[in-house]
Amino acid sequence: MSVLIFVELDEGKIKKSSQEAIFYGAKVAEMMGTSATAVVAGEGDQSELATAGRFGATKVLHAADSKLNEPNGMAYASVVAAAAQQEGSSVIVLAKSSLADAMAARLAGKLKAGLAANVLELPDLSNGFRVKRSIYTGKAFAYTDLTADTKILAIKKNTIETQETDASATVEAFSPALNDGDFGLKVTNTEKATGDVLLPEADLVVSAGRGLKGPENWGIVEDLAKALHAATACSKPVSDLDWRPHHEHVGQTGIKVSPNLYIAAGISGAIQHLAGVNSSKVIVVINKDPEAPFFKSADYGIVGDVFDVLPRLTKAVQAL
Questions:
Q1: Which residue from 131, 161, 228, 272 has the least number of CB within 10 angstroms?
Q2: What separation, in Å, do the N-terminal and C-terminal C-alpha atoms of the chain show?
Q3: What is the pLDDT of residue 132?
């Protein structure tokens, strides 16, 4: 009857968002008087998988088939479904991501489960099973009652504050029965974002728009990001102009982020951009136009030239 948590790996390491999912799942298990079990698909180091115990998992089921190394929503859904059946899990937790979205929908169909995405808090079990969710790109909340026997919860990134212990999870080999249909989807090419801090996992983000005037000026953005140990991002027009790679595009048609701090430099604040960042806990806007729409959504605003303000902020951070 354990709570089951699907864990994603990145270059053999447990993703930060999956650490949050493990911690959340362990808390739900505690509420239900049971244990938390993680399931991992693809090859990975046993000692790294055991670190799931630091966030509350007591056991890790490891489906180490090399065919599972490439992210595959169809095959992963079969793996998690088999693990849920083996463990008798009525609650399955995962971190919301592009991979998890594709996998969770299939998993819900396989298990005839209720699915709630963008979950923000621990469930209310006082009268059934109710979860609080973020909807309308973070503009509103919804309270959803899950009545199916099996429930799948996709946790919104950067909303669960984890706490680590020195515990270690036991790692068990797991060999679910997979068929050719599970691999009907083929991954032909994978392009990964690069950088010291990857945007989807970042707690801090420094973003910029056409106010930087050209790609040759992006050094002042990268300098501040490096000082803060933050990820870099950009607006859609910047990526469309090929000033920055498309995997840095944040907005309604790009990556949606919810960091603790989002710094926007030289971005006007079109509604399409706001749709991707309005879940950020703190938004700082830097723009020389005091009428820029972004100021209406900012927690803090600086009216000034980004070429003057960003270097000053960098020096101040470095001084700390």
A1: 161
A2: 49
A3: 97
Q: How confident is the model at residue 199 (pLDDT cuts 50, 70, 90)?
A: confident
| Statement: residue 191 has pLDDT above 70 | no
Are 259 and 202 spatial neighbours (Cβ–Cβ below 8 Å)?
yes
Which pLDDT belongs to residue 133?
Answer: 95
297's tokens: 């959504």
Q: Using one digit for the tens of pLDDT, what is the confidence trace for 102-128?
A: 899 999 999 999 999 999 999 999 999
d(CA 103, CA 267) in angstroms, rounded, equals 34
Could you report the per-residue pLDDT of 46-98, keeping only the tens digit for each?
999 999 999 999 999 999 988 898 888 999 999 999 999 999 999 999 999 88
Give the per-residue SS3 of the chain: CCEEEEECEECCEECHHHHHHHHHHHHHHHHHCCCEEEEEECCCCHHHHHHHHHHCCCEEEEECCHHHCCCCHHHHHHHHHHHHHHHCCCEEEEECCHHHHHHHHHHHHHHCCEEEEEECCCCECCCCCEEEEEECCCCEEEEEECCCCCEEEEECCCCCCCCCCCCCCEEEECCCCCCHHHHCCCCCCCCCCCCCCCHHHCCEEEEECHHHCCHHHCHHHHHHHHHHCCEEEECHHHHHCCCCCHHHEECCCCECCCCCEEEEECCCCCHHHHHHHCCCCEEEEEECCCCCHHHHHCCEEEECCHHHHHHHHHHHHHHC
Phi and psi (nearest 5°) for 227? -65, -35
Report how far apart, in Å, the C-alpha atoms of 54 and of each of 1, 5, 154 are: 21, 14, 21
